[in-house]
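Here is the promised in-class demo. Please do not try to memorize the tokens; focus on the logic of going from shape to residues.
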């Protein structure tokens, strides 16, 4: 790392952190009051990142104990200037706060995660239960099982008491009961969404049709991942990820993406898109695991 304007920039390449710098930042964060541990999430944790991709750091904290003042001081030190650091809940009910840091050309996002909520939703998922909430930046919504899923897919960077490592082991496997629930929910809701889209299609209401399509395809994508025993925590790249699963129908990703390609907004054009959607949904749902 080299210094620039009082803050840090990367020496390992444009948009990349230098060797050991990520661990150093995580270690500093783990010393802040209320933080249980720090994980690397997103595409970098999965090895699917591109040059310059953000570093998403999950800050797992105990509710009521997080020292946001110390976080502001650390953010200002790293960036060489004051940085907005939210209180818990500042960004909404699910992605409930954090900060966006620019360390020269490197973008590092701090994302709060209430460790008690993670435990709760992990237990709910094992029982086959979940809820979905609205959250800015997540057009499909955030299913509550994303909380344990994020931790299952993350790379633990700092865990002074070993609590995150133990919790990660508990959520490593996708719960069979949750997979059955997702199969059951999609079996009625995906066809229902597409049937409702037909009502908009006859009026040339392309916006409503697109919304129904997005919901239906999202349900299919989540079902395919659940069927494969894989956590899915974000809409980004979800269709492509589903298409790589052995349980996906032939050319699933291409066919699903094609549903959203620009086309006519007249009733006949929209009906043709929905015909293709119905066929794709039928193939996915026909592959449900019995028993």
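The designed amino acids, position by position:
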């Amino acid at each position: 790392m080299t210094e620039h304007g009082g803050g840090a920039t990367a020496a390992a390449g444009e948009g990349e952190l230098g060797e050991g710098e990520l661990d150093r930042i995580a270690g500093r964060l783990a010393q802040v009051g209320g933080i249980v541990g720090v994980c690397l999430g997103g595409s970098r944790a999965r090895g699917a990142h591109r040059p310059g991709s953000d570093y998403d750091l999950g800050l797992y904290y105990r509710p009521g104990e997080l020292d946001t003042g110390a976080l502001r001081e650390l953010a200002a030190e790293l960036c060489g200037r004051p940085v907005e650091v939210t209180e818990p809940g500042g960004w909404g009910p699910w992605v409930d706060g954090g900060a966006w840091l620019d360390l020269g050309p490197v973008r590092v996002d701090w994302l709060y995660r209430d460790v008690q909520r993670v435990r709760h939703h992990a237990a709910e998922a094992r029982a086959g239960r979940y809820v979905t909430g609205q959250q800015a930046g997540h057009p499909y919504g955030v299913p509550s099982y994303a909380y344990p899923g994020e931790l299952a897919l993350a790379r633990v960077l700092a865990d002074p008491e070993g609590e995150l490592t133990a919790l990660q082991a508990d959520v490593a496997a996708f719960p069979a009961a949750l997979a059955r629930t997702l199969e059951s929910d999609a079996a009625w809701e995906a066809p229902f969404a597409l049937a409702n889209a037909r009502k908009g299609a006859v009026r040339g209401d392309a916006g409503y049709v697109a919304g129904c399509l997005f919901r239906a395809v999202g349900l299919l994508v989540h079902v395919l991942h659940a069927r494969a025993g894989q956590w899915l925590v974000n809409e980004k790249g979800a269709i492509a990820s589903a298409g790589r699963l052995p349980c996906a129908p032939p050319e699933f990703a291409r066919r699903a993406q094609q549903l959203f390609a620009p086309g006519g907004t007249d009733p006949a054009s929209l009906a043709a898109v929905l015909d293709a959607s119905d066929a794709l949904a039928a193939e996915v749902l026909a592959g449900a695991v019995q028993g």
